[in-house]
Amino acid sequence: MTALDDLLARAEITDVLCRYAHAIDRGDRALARTCYHADATDDHGRFSGTVDELFAFFESYGATLASTYHFLGVPTIALAGDRAEVETYCLYRREFKDPGAEAVFQGLRYFDVFERRTSRWLIARRTVILDWEHAAPPGPATPSPASWKRGARGEADPAASLTRALAAG
After folding, report:
1. CB neighbours (10 Å) of residue 73?
2. Do strands 65-72 and 104-117 pair parallel, antiparallel, or not at all (unpaired)?
3. Which residue of 57, 62, 116, 132 shows the fewest CB atoms closer than 10 Å?
């Protein structure tokens, strides 16, 4: 692998990781699905199985969530030909639709095996590692004013045009 090939592989892998986080947080599971090979497996803690089973789980579990937020660290990538082991630190927050349910804040690591098939790097196997979790703190005593643009899922999000551009490829 040349130095240029190495850089291109790292950039494509990083792009897949960012696209996944963006798609999940914007509620676009079809876009998130494009980050995996068709025969991928995923151990997401509360679910483990094929990627198709994972997205069926996301469909039902996601219906209980008001929002999610992924903040990714820089991935550590060990390339070996058409395979790469990748570890990415993630701060993750989820808030439920049920107003009585407490939000959760977690420190996670994604441990992924990426494979390049038909010239595309995608996730072949994912393991989510939970390092710590806390109940999310209560809302601020003085909330931000309504003039702030607020994140949302789907077309209501101020950055929805980015999601459409990512889906268009």
Report:
1. 13
2. unpaired
3. 132
Residue 106 has pLDDT above 90, yes or no: yes
Q: By the 8 A CB rule, do 73 and 89 touch?
A: yes
Please give the Cα distance from 43 to 50 (Å, whole number).
9
Residue range 14-45, pLDDT digits in tens:
999 999 999 999 999 999 999 999 999 999 99
> What's the predicted TM-score (pTM) here?
0.90
| Angle of CA points 22, 7, 162, to nearest 5° | 25
| Residue indicated by tokens 């607020």 | 150
Report percent pLDDT > 90 for the chain.
79
Q: Read off the CATH number of the domain in which 44 is found.
A: 3.10.450.50
Q: Does residue 143 belong to any structural domain of this protein?
A: no
Structurally, the chain folds into a number of domains equal to 1
Virtual torsion, Cα 92, 32, 84, 15, nearest 10 deg: -80
